[in-house]
Amino acid sequence: MILTVTMNPSVDIMYQLDELVLDDVNRVQTIKKTAGGKGLNVSRVAHQQGEAVTATGLVGGELGEFVKHQLTEQGIQHHFSMINGKTRNCIAIIHEGNQTEILESGPSISEEEVEAFITEFETLLPDSDVVTISGSLPTGVSSAFYTRLIAKATQHHIPVLLDTSGTALAQALSREPKPTMIKPNLSELASLLQTDEQQIADNLAEYLQQPLFKGVDIIVVSLGADGAFVKWHDSFYRVTIPKIDVVSPVGSGDATLAGLAVGLSREEQPEVILKRAMAAGMLNAQQQATGMIEASKMTQMMSEVKVHQ
Ligand code: ADP
What we know:
Elements: E1 2-6, E2 10-17, E3 30-36, H1 38-48, E4 53-59, H2 61-73, E5 77-82, E6 88-95, E7 98-103, H3 111-124, E8 130-134, H4 145-155, E9 160-163, H5 166-174, E10 181-182, H6 186-193, H7 197-202, H8 204-207, E11 218-222, E12 228-232, E13 235-240, H9 252-265, H10 270-285, H11 298-303, E14 306-308
C-alpha cells in the first residue's frame, strides 16, 4: 500500500469567467469543487494506476468532511487525523486566458494535534510499503516535522518520497534520517542551493553530489517539457520525453511522484520507474483536471520515454 501524507489539504474551487470585472459583481455558472493539496493529487494518480492507496493528513470542519467524502466516492481509502481548525479553500479564477488564485493559508495546528497525527501515522505504517509526503506544513507545525515522519517510516524500512519546498525541504535535508527520494524542479533547487537556475541546469550532476544530498538515494529533478535529470544511487540518468499537446500542466509534478511511488512499490527497475513517472506527468498535463490521468494510455506513453544512463 502507498501511504500519502497531506498536512494542509484544501477544497479547491475553480470559477470559470469570460471576464473578471474588478470592483463589481461577477456571476459564475461554471464551478468545480475538488479535494485538493499535492498529496491528494498523488493519491488519485496512484489509485488510477491500480495501486492500493491510503491518504492521511489533517482535516477539520465541513470542508474536511468534503475532502473525506470525495476520496470515498473515488474509491480511495483515507485515515485523516481530525483537528479543531477548519480545512481551507483555495480559489482559482480562470478568465481571459489567465488564472488568478486566492489561497487561504489554512488552520493553525496545536501541539496535541501534531502528536495525535504522529500516533495515527504510526498505526498506518505496518500496512504500507511506500510513503509519500507532499506540500507545505500548516501553521503551528515545526519545520523539522517531516524528519519525524521520515524517522518513523525508516524504522519500518519503508522508503519515503518527499516533495516539498522552501524551509520544509531545507530542514529535511539538514537532518537524519534523510528521505529516500526527493523530486525538486529547477526553481526549487535554485532556492534550496541559493544559486541561479541556469547555473544549476548547466551543471546538474555536480550540484546533486553536494554534501546536502548525501544519504538521499534518489533525486529526480523534473524539467517540465524537457523530461528529467536523475541521480539514482551512484548512477545518473537523462530522461527525455516526446512533444505532447498540453492542456494543463498543474499537478504534473504530483502525478510524477505518484508514478515513482507506484514503480517503487512494485519493485520495478529504475528505467521502468522513470518511464512510469514521466508518463504519469505527461498524462496529467494532457487533462484539464489536476491530479488525474487517462491510465489506459500509460503503456503507450511509457514506450515513448527514453532513459539514457
Ligand atoms: P512540477 O509540477 O513539480 O514543477 P514539472 O513541471 O517538471 O513538475 O512536471 C513533471 C513532469 O510532468 C515532467 O517531468 C514531464 O514528464 C511532465 N510535464 C510537465 N509539463 C510538461 C509539458 N509542458 N510537456 C510535456 N510534459 C510535461
